Amino acid sequence: EQVIASQEQNNPASTQQVKMHQPCYYIFTSGTTGLPKASVMSHYRWFKSMAGMGLASMKLRKDDVLYVSLPLYHNNALTVSMAAVLGAGACIAISRKFSVSRFWDEIREYGATGFCYIGELCRYLLNTAPSDKDQQHNIRVIIGNGLRPDIWMEFKQRFNIKHINEFYGASECNLVFTNALNLDQTAGICPLSYNIVAYDIENDEPLRDKKGFMLPVKKGGTGLLITEVNDKQPFEGYTDAEASQKKLFRDVFKKGDCWFNSGDLVLNQGFKHVAFADRLGDTFRWKGENVATTEVESILMEFADIEHAVVYGVEVPHTDGRAGMAALTLRAGADINWNALTLHLREKLPAYAIPLFLRLRPQEEVTGTFKYRKVELKDEAFHLAKVSDPLLVLSNKNEPYQPLTPALEQAINNGQLSL
């Protein structure tokens, strides 16, 4: 208190020279599908987050304590959480790092009334054994993104969370969806100009009509989220000008317009609400059908012995598209029944979406923000020469998974197996 009392009460003179649209800091993208890029975060965007997320969506009060266990180089911590707290005059409790075992103890210790999350953080918490302390806390609201529909209700009910303020946004995106209305299994609403357009997964580009314009999807459809770039919604881009231009579409609905490519497939829920579906590059095409990796991952993790599942598409010689492959981490002490897993997948998924290859890993590689790294997994694929982990293959439609042997790999590479 003595230290605080001795500080100046007025802003330094240099603050008068700061303009809203000047860079405030740079946030690096996670690098899940390539090298990270530095996206520009202006003071304007920080202020929009302060008003939109902290005050309007979360409705933070002065007596609130927001617990943050994410690194401060993540937008959810620095832009969303810090802005919300300062705007409301509330308190922020910053953990040294995320810890499953200490999470709820620290929540109780700091008297937190809210916390920020990303989807995998919630899954880690849900994977712990139930405790009679699960609802012994003062949490009334949580804010973050990536909470999957398959665990949404279970997480909310087990930990008695009153408001899940899921949102959709990205470091470089020029608008945000937020679940201010506290509905379930949605990234919320956005009043600004955006659209969801039909996307050709096989050719990796949006569909266009005879006039060359993109085609919006209807309610209930899934498509590519694009956001209009204009004076009210500027695209601040990256420090790399060439990389910035690659994220923009021109002549989308009329000549001369400009739209930002989010790179994400979303579900059009209607009433200006969306739900995240998958990331471009993750969705792949097999047997003439689109396969959403998030859906397959959810079905895999319904199986009791599987703790983590990372799904991706791999090229197979003499075939079109990409076959499904899953890197699995099993629960400690699990003795998985491959017959049961095969039956589970065949009951829950269409044939084209069932992964043909499995890779067993002691743990999954994640970025600093808990996102799975798929670059190396896609490159190593099912090649025994590159992979030291156990590999399995579904080489016969009437049999369960079996170990991938050199003979089977050679038969696949020679096109001798009908996958």
Can you describe this structure?
The protein is of the alpha+beta class and 419 residues long. Helix content is 23%, strand content 26%. The chain contains 11 helices and 23 strands. The protein has helices at residues 2-5, 43-57, 75-88, 103-110, 119-126, 149-158, 241-245, 293-300, 338-348, 375-380, 406-413; strands spanning 23-28, 38-42, 65-68, 91-94, 114-118, 141-145, 163-168, 177-178, 188-189, 194-197, 199-200, 205-206, 222-228, 248-250, 258-270, 273-279, 284-286, 289-291, 306-314, 323-330, 357-360, 391-393, 402-403. Strands 4-3-5-6-7-8 form a 6-stranded mixed beta sheet, sandwiched between helices. β14 and β15 form a beta hairpin. The N and C termini lie far apart (69 Å).
Helix content: 10-25%
Strand fraction: 25-35%
Q: Could you report the average pLDDT, rounded to the nearest whole number?
A: 90
The number of distinct β-strands equals 23
The main pleated sheet reads as: 6 strands, mixed
Give the strand order, joined by hyphens, for the main sheet.
4-3-5-6-7-8
Computed over alpha carbons, the radius of gyration is: 23 Å
Large-scale geometry: globular
Q: Please give the count of helices.
A: 11
Poorly predicted regions are none
Q: Distance between the terminal alpha carbons, to the nearest Å?
A: 69 Å
Q: Structural class, please? A: alpha+beta
